[in-house]
Design brief:
- The complex is a heterodimer of chains A (357) and B (305).
- With 357 residues, chain A is mainly alpha-helical.
- Chain A folds into two domains: 20-113, no CATH class; 137-351, MetI-like fold (Orthogonal Bundle).
- Chain A has helices at 28-46, 52-74, 77-114, 117-121, 137-168, 171-185, 189-204, 211-236, 239-247, 252-279, 284-289, 308-318, 321-351.
- In chain A, α6 (171-185) crosses α8.
- Chain B has one domain (41-299): MetI-like fold (Orthogonal Bundle), CATH 1.10.3720.10.
- The longest helix of chain B is centred in the N-terminal third of the chain and has 38 residues, at 3-40.
- Classes of the chains: A mainly alpha (357), B mainly alpha (305).
- At the A-B interface, α3, α5, α6, α7 and α8 of A face α1, α3, α4, α5 and α6 of B.
């Protein structure tokens, strides 16, 4: 076979034995895209509906049809199918970007109109009807308090379970725990809310409402996420480090504390922060358990609390000026989540253990 | 640290593992405990609840289960082909060095809180999709599925589209992982036989990744079944066994029903809602366990490379 035969399927016509059929020239793809774009622009201009989304959509469709037909005429069915598949797969990625971009853009656009210093620093006491005053100070702090409480519950359990699974777990119990951690990841958030409600109703009666109820529900959702990510990090710690420690006569528990956890600490922090980012936007369990309050409530163990997601939902439900506040709360929430994500990625980048495998 | 402390630490770690099992059992136990009054109560007792309009608890929960399944399956129908294509794009079409960042872009969709999806779906997507639904109902309205669209687009189709976006990241992530694990030798063998890239995907990647994609879809299904806020904020509820996908006031899901009724409920109505939650818990548990079972069965022979 000729040495020029490429490993990757390429657009260039292969020489020698394989060149049984002609291939489309290299300029086929860009020229078809350009042609489709021009045609769709003209058609949509004549149809008087010239918008960017319409042009892009029509261009993609025209291109897919044109390149497939052209390829079918010149290259035959196999290469035509290949080109169609490439177009479809690439277009699918483009389609997935539509919700992402439009969502971030709408939230930014609508939220930025509302958010200012006052909005972030007032609560909703004495705000009713179409009053434009009021803000999300209490909701921001409520979200932070409840999430911190959930973190305080789930992180110790999560890290210890991960240590058990990686360092100690053998046999049926470890397999069972692994399986049920996976199952637990799939608990619907609203069921976690119902669980927290049932638990505290049995303990303190049906009228009891407190931030800790929401924190319990969030902890149920957060624990499996923490376990999964910490487990992954602990498995990344090279076995040589453990063996070196054992060789020095260090006990297993001490090795875990001084060697394994210390090596993986960056990854563990990252995993915990990503878990926080995942539960901080949970709405349904908080709606069932913590409810909403107009004023700041610093006591996690008594009374309703406001949180950003529930606040956003309630304001949306109320309509009118409330929808603006909902966008403001949504933007604040997304900003917090993205911030957590970015910090987590940065920690992961700088403290990543050097995987030797 | 002496030997005793070392043993003690092992007990603590094992205990944490057992706590996980206890929590899961507790979730089930407390739900059953709180749901029992509704399941054992006399039907006349239940019918005193203002929104309870059925002859039995089963008749009450059945349309909700139908709505939940319909919304989730529709979402799956949209999300799976899209997610598989995206996963394929990231794993086999985009340049390798972009695979990480592109995957991260899709993962961003998973980071967005559900209440924001609800806002977006109700206030952005519903008006945008309106002309599409109008077109569907006027040209394909003879098919019952698309008949009788009434604006605004607060129907199950819109809710399912938002659900599809929400479950897209998990299906994409799992499928991508599986596709990336395709044995290099299989791929090179296909190329050596003169396969085009699409034939390589069909002959080497898909057969290898099929069970992975199935379990990814089931994980997505599990997410969609339990998703509350997007449905609650978008769908105009009803309790019918209806296949009019574009008609508002036909369907409701279990989760959205609980969230809408729960804050005002008291006494036996709380029990009824918790009982429906129990049904949702059982359904998602079965779906997730099936998905995990497929994954674990697959991992037994995935060491092909």
């Amino acid at each position: 076979m000729a040495a020029t035969t490429p490993l990757e399927p390429s657009l260039a016509a292969p020489s020698g034995l394989l060149a049984s059929r002609p291939r489309l020239p290299r300029w086929a793809v860009p020229s078809t895209i350009g042609f489709s774009f021009a045609l769709s622009a003209v058609v949509l201009f004549l149809a008087d509906s010239l918008t960017i989304p319409a042009v892009v959509a029509l261009t993609v469709v025209l291109y897919a049809v044109a390149i497939s037909v052209w390829s079918l005429r010149v290259e035959g069915t196999r290469y035509a199918a290949d080109r169609t598949a490439t177009t479809v797969v690439t277009a699918a990625f483009g389609i997935a970007l539509i919700p992402l971009i439009s969502l971030l853009w709408t939230v930014l656009q609508n939220g930025a109109r509302v958010i200012n210093f006052t909005f972030l620093n007032t609560n909703m006491v004495g705000v009713y009807g179409e009053m434009t005053e009021g803000g999300i100070y209490h909701a921001i702090w409520g979200t932070i308090l409840i999430t911190l409480a959930a973190t305080a519950i789930s992180v110790p359990i999560g890290i210890l379970t991960a240590i058990y699974l990686v360092e100690y777990g053998r046999g049926a119990l470890a397999r069972g725990v692994t399986f049920f951690v996976d199952v637990m990841t799939g608990i619907p958030s609203i069921v976690a809310g119902l669980f927290a409600f049932s638990l505290f109703t049995l303990l303190f009666g049906p009228a009891f409402r407190a931030g800790i109820m929401g924190a319990t529900a969030l902890a149920v959702l957060m624990t499996p996420v923490v376990i999964r990510s910490v487990e992954e990090m602990l498995r990344l710690v090279p076995n040589e480090l453990r063996e070196a420690s054992y060789a020095l006569g260090v006990s297993k528990a001490r090795t875990i504390f001084k060697v394994v956890l210390r090596t993986a600490i960056g990854g563990i922090v990252t995993g915990v922060m990503l878990a926080i980012a995942r539960v901080i936007g949970e709405t349904a369990p908080l709606l069932l358990t913590v409810g909403l309050a107009a004023d700041m409530n610093w006591d996690l163990f008594e009374g309703r609390m406001a949180t950003l997601p529930v606040f956003a939902y309630r304001q949306y439900q109320q309509g009118g000026i409330g929808v603006d506040r909902a966008w403001g709360a949504a933007l604040t929430l997304i900003a917090i989540v993205m911030l957590l994500n970015i910090i987590a990625r940065l920690i992961a980048k700088y403290y990543a253990p050097k995987a030797s495998r | 640290m002496n030997l005793l402390a070392a043993r003690w630490f092992e007990f603590v770690a094992t205990g944490a593992g057992i706590i996980i099992l206890v929590i899961l059992a507790a979730v089930a136990a407390f739900l059953i405990w709180e749901a029992t009054p509704a399941l054992t109560a006399d039907i006349s007792e239940l019918q005193k609840i203002s929104w309870f309009n059925a002859d039995s608890f089963l008749a009450f929960v059945a349309p909700l289960i139908f709505g939940t399944l319909l919304a989730s399956l529709l979402a799956l129908l949209v999300a799976v082909p899209l997610a598989v294509s995206i996963a394929l794009f990231i794993s086999h079409y985009a340049p390798r060095k972009f695979a990480g960042p592109l995957g991260y872009v899709i993962d961003l969709l998973a980071a967005i809180p559900s209440v924001v999806y609800g806002l977006w779906g109700a206030l952005w997507l519903a008006p945008v999709i309106d002309p599409v639904f109008r077109w569907l109902t006027s040209f394909l309205g003879f098919i019952p599925l698309f008949a009788d669209y009434q604006p605004p687009a607060k129907n199950i189709m819109t809710a399912s589209l938002v659900l599809a976006v929400m479950i897209l990241p998990i299906i994409t992530a799992v499928s991508r992982e599986v596709f990336l694990q395709t044995p290099r030798l299989h791929e090179e063998a296909a190329l050596a036989l003169g396969a085009t890239r699409w034939e390589l995907v069909r002959m080497a990647v898909f057969p290898f990744g099929r069970s992975g994609v199935i379990s990814a879809a089931m994980l997505g299904l599990g997410r969609a079944l339990g998703e509350t806020m997007a449905v609650l904020m978008i769908l105009s509820p009803g309790t019918l066994f209806s296949f009019f996908l574009l008609k508002p006031g036909q369907h409701q899901t279990i989760a959205a029903n609980i969230a809408s009724k729960f804050p005002e409920a008291s006494g036996v109505s709380v029990s009824v809602l918790i009982a429906t939650g129990l049904a949702l818990f059982v359904i998602t548990l079965l779906v997730n366990m099936a998905a995990r079972w497929i994954v674990s069965r697959r991992s037994d022979f995935s060491g092909a490379n």
